[in-house]
Amino acid sequence: MASGRSIIRQDSWPLRSLTSCSSLPPEGAAAPAARQSRSRGPGLGRKPGWLLVTTIFIAACVNIVSAEAIFDAKNSSQNAACKPVYLTLDTGHMEVAPLIAEVLKRHQVRATFFAANERTKTGDGSLGTYWAPWWKARATEGHEFASHTFDHAYWRADVPAAPGAPQQFRIRPSAGPSEGKELAWSAAQYCEEISRSSARLQDITGKKPLPLFRAPGGKTSVPLLAAARSCGFAHVGWSPAGFLGDELPSEKYPNAALLNKALKDVRSGDVLLAHLGIWSRQDPWAPAVLEPLITGLQAQGFCFKTLREHPQYQAWIETHAPVLTTQTGK
């Protein structure tokens, strides 16, 4: 995602006990033997045979430890040079969220979560009070967070503006009080919508979200992206092979087929996309596909990183800090 060796302290260290480096006497263990030599008279000043052998054995162990250090350094180098992929998880009905969290923790994978306050099978929405402890636990584990708009608001179209008039967008939220309605929002209103989700994430996790967002469905326009960037948010989509297929009907796209396709197609640098539960999929994608996907990619030399480490977004993240709002008016 370091290993240590412990040395067991013993009261006496006869020669026969020196069978491995871990059985070497701790510092000061030879003192009782020295006191015994002084009491023997004739043996005083002679170098005990077992001490000579121990000295040789210690020297050998130094070489072994040095070799292990070289091996560890090589492993670290390999990890640094691994093929990175970036697992991102959008909110959903949340029923599988605890299972997904267990898989990520078991395999020491850190992901980037894009959150909206969507309807859930249990509780008061994915960013509601019920799920707040779940998000807090993910922050403790080192995951990253970003906005998915607060009401999971889909961009539908740019609204033609009169000369000199502010840009507007046709938006349809799929959650919240305006669920299913077609709305006309200004750039400032869309920025507020992105910001509300980030503000809620910071409130319940205590961790500052990334200055990134993902538009629901990945639907955007050039003016919409410009509006978001003007208030400090860069958009993140996903790679073609990174679409893991959990939104597709399981009757036509069974889990086994989706797993095999991902293991075959994913490439270094890909941004992967899945969800914390899809209402329409009968056979849940996670954790059935997620766990073998993680272990399968790791076996191919891939490693998982968050978007904070993505070269395309690092500079943006370091230089942008959006002003977050909790306003709800549109």
Description:
The protein has 9 helices and 10 strands. The protein has 330 residues and is α/β, with parallel strands linked by helices. Strands 1, 2, 3, 9 and 10 form a 5-stranded parallel sheet that branches. A 3-stranded antiparallel sheet has the order 4-5-6. The longest helix is centred in the first third of the chain and has 32 residues. The N terminus is likely disordered.
Mean pLDDT: 82
Unreliably modeled segments = 1-78
| Amino- and carboxy-terminal Cα gap | 43 Å
Percent of sequence in beta strands: 5-15%
Instruction: Give me the Rg, rounded.
Output: 29 Å
- How would you sum up the major sheet? 5 strands, parallel
Please tally the helical runs, counting DSSP H or I stretches of 4 or more residues.
9
> Which class best fits the helix and strand makeup?
alpha/beta
Order of helices and strands: HHEHEHEEEEHEHEHEHEH
Shape: globular
Tell me the helix content.
25-40%
Number of strands: 10
